[in-house]
Structure formats: structure tokens, C-alpha cells
Amino acid sequence: MRILCIGDVVSRIGRDMLFKYVDDLKYGTNIDLVIANAENSNHGRGMTRRGYDEMKSAGVDLFTLGNHTWGAKDIIDILDSEDDVIRPLNFPGAVPGRGIAVVNTASGIPVGVVNLIGQTNMAPCNSPFEAAQRAVKELSEKVRIIIVDFHAEVTSEKVAMGYFLDGKVSAVFGTHTHIQTSDSKILPNGTGYITDLGMTGPADSILGMNKNIIIKRFLTGMPQKFEIAGGKGQFCGCVFTIDEETGRCTNTERLLIYE
Ligand SMILES: [Fe+2]
Ligand SMILES: [Fe+2]
Fold it and tell me: What pLDDT, on a 0 to 100 scale, did the predictor assign at position 224?
């Protein structure tokens, strides 16, 4: 089975990139399941109903989120009504939605997906490691293939999660930094891993934002109103090939496509 995981979709430009590439990849390279991180799909902040509908029609099967989960108010209704959108499992307190989903591929194979958020340089949350352990225990009774989106800032925490879950899940991919790392690999016990998928959004930008505004902020230290960048897009992701019998990853392919 081949699972395409797409890094943080940013704004209209990111959503357009899904229309340009997901179908071709899905049918041209035999992808069985498409997972996308949608935390910035609404103009950089959160996800709207319209964005959800668009990205579904572009071919995404399941959405994960992150620290921008609550950035657009539609998300409350979306989390209530849709089974294919999950938010970080280890958010503190009683919040809407779920952090775990089981989706069936077109050929009827169930895949468990877990969304976690990091603790280092992020807002307070419960331990992602303890949450991962509980999620794996729960899902292992139902599915052979488990995919984890770990939405975190620092590389050390992400690599630690990869090794912590090595041999227990099929793949761990990182999101949030918007810069793709070149370390996609198979860990010693068979888990596919990449520290960050990168961003699907405006290519000529600083993490999706207008570059001049961010540079001005660094030059002056004065607060600036962020704006989403325009221009051409980029598509970032990774395809994990998973052995359906064992649940082990057999190949990883990084994707970074400039328009
Ligand atoms: Fe993001
Ligand atoms: Fe984020």
C-alpha cells in the first residue's frame, strides 16, 4: 500500500496545488490513501467548511491539524460532523473532535491515523509520548497499519518520537516547520520516518508569509501584520510504501515540486 502524506497546506495557493498534483499522483503512481495537514489551509489560519469541501474534491482522504486548529470557527462544526478530520490527540482539557481516526482505503484495508502535537516551544499540552503509547495500544487491536502526524517545532522531539514508535507504527511524519527535511528513511524496526514534510503553499515566501514583511520584522524588531504570500506554489510531501501483511514500511519517497 502506498500512502501520500502532504505537508501543511497554506492558503488558496496551497489548495490549488492539491488540485494540480493529488489526482495525478493518486492515479498515476497508485496511491491508496492521501493524508494532508490542513492547519493553515484557510489563508494561513485553521480550516473552513469551504476549504474542507475543496480539498476533499481535490482527492484528500483524511486531514490532520496542529497549533492552528482553532484558527477558523468552522472547525468546531467540521470536527463534530466529519470523521475524516482529526486534531492533536494530546491537546489539554476537554476540546471538540478526536485525535485518532480509522479510514478504509478503496480496497477496504483499514488504516489508523493519529495526530499529535509537540511540547517544546509550543503551547502547553499533554505528553505526546504518553498519548502515542495509548493510541497505539487502542489502534493495534483494530488495524495493522498506523500512521502518525507529529506536529512539532524541534527536530530532537520529532526524531525521539520516530524512535519511540519504531516497530509499533508504519510511519511517523513531522509537520509544522514548513521546511522539508531530507532525512526520510526506514528506522531499524521498520517504521517509515521524516522529520518534516514541508509546506504546500506559496513558494516565494517565508514559511508561507509575505517575505518583505517578515524581513522588516527581523530588521526592526517591530511587530508587523503578517500577510500570506502570493505567486507560484510548491507541493511538499512523502509517499510511504507499507507492506500490508506486516505493517512495516518498505520505501519512502520525498516529494518537493515547484510549480
Ligand atoms: Fe503549519
Ligand atoms: Fe503548526
Answer: 86
